[in-house]
Amino acid sequence: MAKYELVIYWSEADDSFVVEVPELPGCMADGVSYQAAVANAERIIKEWIDTAKEEGRPIPEPKGRLIYA
Q1: Residue 48 is assigned to a structural domain of this protein
Q2: DSSP H stretches of helix in 1-69
Q3: Quick check: 67 pLDDT over 70?
Q4: Of 34, 45, 40, 32, the residue nearest 5 (C-alpha)
Q5: Nearest alpha carbon to residue 17 among 7, 3, 27, 5
Q6: Strands of 28-31's sheet, edge to edge?
Q7: Residue 65: partners with Cβ closer than 8 Å, 6 or more residues away
Q8: Residue 9 belongs to what H/E stretch?
Q9: For the chain, what is the domain count?
Q10: How confident is the model over 10-66, as pLDDT tens digits?
Q11: Which residue range(s) make up the domain with 32?
């Protein structure tokens, strides 16, 4: 599986951990625990990529670590 950046935070409003995948527009997941949220994100990333392939949309390459000058 490709290694995309994950942004993980606790949402009081949703009472769960939320995971955003900034490199894949609209790709996000949640879970009641940190581990569940990451596992859900991995599944959603695969589904996002599969859907993009089916629709002929470009799939961004993972950028890896951000480098600051």
Answers
A1: yes
A2: 34-55
A3: no
A4: 45
A5: 7
A6: 7-11, 16-20, 28-31
A7: none
A8: strand 7-11
A9: 1
A10: 999 999 999 999 999 999 999 999 999 999 999 999 999 999 999 999 999 998 665
A11: 7-55
19 assigned to some structural domain: yes
Tokens 């940190």 sit at which residue? Answer: 34
1: in domain: no
Q: Residue 50 corresponds to which tokens in the numbers above?
A: 């599969």
How far apart are alpha carbons 44 and 5 in whole angstroms?
A: 13
Question: Could you give the maximum distance between any two Cα atoms of the chain, in Å?
Answer: 38
Q: 63 in a domain, yes or no?
A: no
State the DSSP code for 61: P
Identity (one letter) of the amino acid at 63? K
Q: How is residue 4 written in tokens?
A: 């995309």
